[in-house]
Amino acid sequence: MVLPFNNPEEATRIIQQHAGTLAAVLVDPLPNRAGLVPASQEYVAALRKAANDIGALLIFDEVISYRLGYHGAQPLWNVHADLTTLGKVIGGGFPVGAVGGRNEVMAVFDPSQGKPALPHGGTFSANPISMVAGLAAVKQLDHAAYERLEQMGEAVRSEANLSFKRHGVPGLAVGMGSLLKIHFTGNQIADYRSVYPTEREAEMLRTFNLTLLNTGVLAASYGLMALSTPMTDSDVHQVSAAIDTAIADVKRAYL
């Protein structure tokens, strides 16, 4: 079942309606491909309660959002998930994926008492290169590193939103921590539908990205930018200046 994002009441209704067939509720608190719009505190709290009420598990997809803080995303939403999926940052740039959770949930994999209820294995399980690179990466990501990443992300998002206002271009920079995404829209942003671009908005984003490239800044074609620990204040200023130039180019081309 697909739940409406950031709509606690409707999501709860659907979960309750299908209580007999749902084993788990899965949520990405900062879904990149759905616009990088953060889940509201109320929405996540409603999912946790609804899952508890019907005896289902709550699964947090932190493949991307684990980079939001030293303890990942869950403390930022005041929630404890039953299972958590991880990837990307825990591999230090190498291919990786992992799942963890509460003892009683993870016990299905436990072979210490005989054949487990759910055997787990794979060709690339416990890949030593990914593990070494991942360990090196997470050791560097201490509390100070996350604080610095948050400061850089907030600086770029704030400057981008000031640029939208200064040039009179409808748009918004959203995101959290070291992640941000640019949207050319005048809509109030709350979910995937509110940020899905029109043909004209998609053209504006393409022009925006081309200007970024021509000024030495590489962003994803769909507007995502990810800041990293090696970046300095100079890099932050360069990215912010490139965004301002790109928004100005969009204004000249379309407004």
Task: Provide keyphrases for this structure.
3-stranded antiparallel sheet; 2 domains; globular; alpha/beta; Aspartate Aminotransferase, domain 2; 255 residues; Aspartate Aminotransferase, domain 1
What would you note in describing this structure?
With 255 residues, the protein is α/β, with parallel strands linked by helices. The protein folds into two domains: 8-140, Aspartate Aminotransferase, domain 2, CATH 3.40.640.10; 143-254, Aspartate Aminotransferase, domain 1 (Alpha-Beta Complex). It is 42% helix and 12% strand. It has helices at residues 8-17, 41-54, 103-106, 128-140, 143-167, 192-195, 199-214, 233-254; strands spanning 24-27, 57-61, 83-87, 97-101, 172-174, 179-183, 224-226. The chain has a four-stranded mixed sheet. Strands 5-6-7 form a three-stranded antiparallel sheet, covered by helices on one side. β1, α2 and β2 (57-61) form a beta-alpha-beta unit. α1 packs parallel to α2 (41-54) and α7 packs across α8. The longest helix has 25 residues, at 143-167. The two termini are 41 Å apart. The mean pLDDT is 96.
